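Record format v2
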Amino acid sequence: MKRIRIISTSVFALAAFLFFALGYKYHLLECESSKIFLFTWDYFRETVFCRGGLCNYISAFLIQFYHIPVVGAAIIALALGALQWGLSVVCRNGWVFPFTFVPSGIYWALLCNNNYTLNGLISLVLAVYCAVLIMKIKFCDLRIVLFLLVPLTFYYIFGGRFFMYADAPVWVFVLVWGVTAAVFALGASLPSKELKAWWSIVLVAAVFFAAGAAIFKNYNALDEEIFKYTYLARNCKWAEIEQCALKKQPASPVSTNALNLSIARKGEMGERLFTFFQKGKRSLINFEEREMSAEILFHLGFINEAQHITFEAMASNPDLQRGAFQLLRLAQMNMIASRREVAHKYYKTLSHTLFYRSNALKMLAMSEEQISSHPLYGELRRMQPVSPFRFDAADFEGMLEIMVQQHPDNRLAGEYLNASYLLGKDLKAFEQRLEGMHKPLAKHYEEAAVMISALKGGPASSVGLQNYINAYNNCGGNPAKLQKYSGTYWFYYNFR
Amino acid sequence: MKKLIIIFSALLLAWSCSDSPKNYSQMSALPDIFPDYTDITIPYNIAPLNFYVDSADAISLKILGGDSREYNFHYNSSFVKFSPKKWRSLMDAEKGNTLELFIKAVRGEDEIGFRSFKWKVAPEPVDRYLSYRLIEPAYEVWNMIQICERDVQNYNVKVLSDNNIAGHSCINCHTSNRTPGGQSTFMHVRGKTGGTIYSNGGSLRKLNTKTEKTSGSAVYGELDYSGRYGVFTTAEIFPILHSEPLGRLEVYDTSSDLILIDFQENTVTDSPLVKGPDFQETFPCFSADNNTIYFCRAERHSQPDSTKMMHYNLYSIGFDRSSGKFGDTITKVVDAQAIGKSISFPKCSPDGRFILFSVSDYGTFPIWHPETDLWMYEIATGRIDKMENANGPYSDSYHCWSTNSKWIVWASKRGDRVYGKPYYSYVDESGEVSKPFVLPQKDPKSYITTLKSFNIPEMYNEPEVYDAVEIGKSYFKGETEKMRYK
């Protein structure tokens, strides 16, 4: 029986590890980037000396290791395994044992939602082990005293407020703590009873199956994709973004925004934009998605607006935490905008972290000349607006026009402006852009150019366009019959 | 065993002696200390001025006081942290004297002596309490706002209001009338069940200051010395973002008027002289005798397109305490428009001699204007002091006078341009303002690591009667008193 218990706990923890390491890697990275853990006395004092503070401190300490997803997955697996093991320690009844996996299973399913973090799990684990310790005390009076004192102490140190960082529905709280308490109470109170091995295996397998179903139901593939593209864009992994998109068409506007940013950064907007699915100007930027919008604006040179969005995204972190990556970006933006003092303030804060320290120290040591000659920061510094204008997110195209007017050498802004005109089907505006373009034109620009010429009543100078027109006239309005042309601007113009 | 202890102690002594540095050099420069506490005037009742010396392994500090009294301190770190008891006795003994501080810093094998600097210990105390708002320098979204009350004689801080237990609402403008024995204060808590929290004689009231005939709720304002009357701005406030690298945020009013509130009768009144569509009036304050109200006024232009044309001048209007009404005429006091400037936040010194205000290039939101400086206007002579000794390279604004008119405190963004910190200066008999010093903290480095900005510092002598929990209760459960237009 003991062997079955050890094996089943190990299998459970291993499954959790594999799930988070392989299937939920980018959730972990996203969670880590929106939190910060500082190795300073001030941070300790500010975090610990408030209700639930110690729990928050411990989980922030652990969450920083999500920076290496394998380690993060191991931490979660150990915590889930520890919760189950704690419950199984007091359980002597073979019928109850399979149910010791239920709280961990529920919490695993909850962790599929990034609004739930380790805080509540750590709190549960500590509560269970504390209860186990109380159970082990032989002196009845001491046990009663502790039974009365511990809940209050626990509430203050590991308080329920920190069960999660967004406002949780009460039923979730009741479910997790209620089920844990019920399993603990049953395990501790029911008499010892051994089951036959096969019975144990069947029951454990049934619980595993139920937990698996709950986890499957909560698994958020779309968020994982969004976090993946966000992570890759933040780290300028343009080739990987394209590989992902080639493997599977991006399913969300954020992924499409990241993909288009990667295409533009590689200077291939004119060649490849319409080889991927596009849907209007929102394929370029979607201001409702703050993190990705900030990335795009950052690369375009709209540093102030990118800073605005990043700062507000950070101020909206539901657990009042500062995000390490957000702080890093703010530091970079201030460095680029020559606001060196405030950049140093952020870098000095980051120098107290584990994973951002070396980068922060390197940046602190950089001179103004080194920043100006840096391949990214230097380029963005040169692209800063030279005369003031009010940024209007509702008129992004207008902002790009101002940027291109002030910095005709801002290649990325130029590519975005071209793409914006094409995606908005504003061929008149695009025609003006054509005048300044080098020949030969990139594929999609050429497609738009011959189309403009044809729409003006001129001959379809391109064989490709003529073929497309013929095919279009014969397709009966059914785009499926024009799949051959799905990667052209003509197809986009007619069907998207 | 005894022998062993003696041998060990001897070894320890020998080791500690051998650790003394070999190379001594005297520098002509001032020490690189943070905060900059060199050559300043301080009140005798201020908390210990802890600081750190850059890259020091150990520090020796000698202080020469009056009658050649000498005080020696030694620290085995880069921090000078005075014991509160020793500091208090030092300040009490040296009240009115000038102290000279000699610092020697050990850096590795070297010991460096720096040029000495001075602390003048003013005999006039600074107001014991300082309230300020702690907020991240955000744009339109915030998640942490606290109004705190610091006892400046030590490091104790009490949280007066915390938006996380007040419906995440914006909290602002904690202001006191500083009347001894009968202090009244107010602050605004926005949000669904918010209001103006008014405290007088220990009772706490929540007021809805908006009436059917006034354009909005009370914003910037001040209380008279009785606490019965308050004069406020009502304004429609909007933010816009600057695009250029060194710009940040512009906040402008599309309309703004003045109102007078009678907290005893729960009435609001105004005057056609300080309301209407042609001009915008804002930042009112009472004169020391409470017979005059100073305020800022600008000709209205379409905004945000013409925000840069908004130049506010300083005006005054009478105040009749018996009727609780505005006077019949307005007078231009300082013409800032003529010199291409804009005045904000006038504050009268309690002795009636000066008006301190912020001056920026345009508009009404000086905290994001790096060119903003404090200027001091002498009422009797009309002389303006540009306070070059006190102003920093970035925004200096949100100032306040101490009750004895000897100290001013304001939020200065010197250092990093974004994060405000409370700076104090001494104002001498002739109106000269001394080099400022930042509010001392137990850990002087906390100003570097904090991501919160201090704004709206306000001095007063009696502790606030409520705390954040009471404000939270008042927000959610307190009955809101309605005001009527008179």
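Residues 162-166 of chain A have pLDDT under 50 and may be disordered.
The longest helix of chain A spans residues 2-23.
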